[in-house]
Amino acid sequence: MYKFAAKCLEAAFQPPSQIPIDHIADHVSSQTRPSANQAGSRLTDNSRMNTLPSVPCYLNGEFTTLPNAKISVMDRGFIFGDGVYEVIPIYKSKLFRFAHHMTRLERSLSELRIANPLTREQWADIANQLIAAFAQSTGVSANDVDQLVYIQITRGVAMRDHVMPTDITPTVFVMTNLMKPPTPAQRETGVTCVSADDFRWAKAHIKSTSLLGAVFARQISFDVGATETILFRDGFVSEAAASNVWIVQNGRLIGAPKDHLVLEGIRYSLIEELCQAHGIPFELRRVSRAEVQKADEILLSSATKEVLAVTALDGQPVGSGRPGPVYTQLHAGYQDAIALTLKEARP
What is the CATH topology of the domain spanning 184-342? Predict the structure, then answer.
């Protein structure tokens, strides 16, 4: 195991200029815009993401650090966004629902006609080495820090041509970083979201690295100080910029169907299991904008959010304006699922 430096590079940046997405403003529901000072403050905080800390990563068979990881400028992931990715949550050094993530990774690779370059055992070995190395680089035990493992596979390096080459080696990149879960305040009071038309492509079921649509969608909510942008396609909810979306009607949890218009989050199957365990009716179908606006509860789910209550949408309260009973049950059940994973992983 390599020893990695514990210190991260110091951030020293000028605030970046605001991203020009005015041309998609018509997609956003009416809402209060932030003041220049508020927007500038958020952009200054966001600029800290520009720094590359010396944390461990894996690139094409070698362990290195982020500042030292290099790829060719002709990599199709760089040129075309021709690749897929996965994000796996790690609790106390244990991979959470690893098999489910591998199944989705394999499905995405198949859609792009890219052969999986590694076995599940090899993916797990790389992830576990990085989990331990990251903890070592920060000077803490791997059992004392929750992480996210990011896996990215691109088609590989070739001269620029839209046609998919079949005789090149995929580029494999893996890194790990701290998980940033919702704050206790967000858990207690819920979060604010805005809505927008879903202007992304029609193959959202592929976990593709071509994420410009999601970037634009998330910027809409970031610019107004909201947590997420809930997207609607032809009047029906699809998903959010980086989350799946659920509503509660009369105690029933309802989500969008698993098709090409949404990325089937790993939490889809987990939430269905939790609903069954807690006696919560569960349904997947088209959900109209009117139903979302009148919902008793709105929930987000993702690797980092787990399950999170939305208590305001487009400036209007959701239900009582507080996290509701279905959220409370599902969040508790989610924590039980994590605890079970840790228990089963003990030798």
Answer: D-amino Acid Aminotransferase; Chain A, domain 2 (3.20.10)
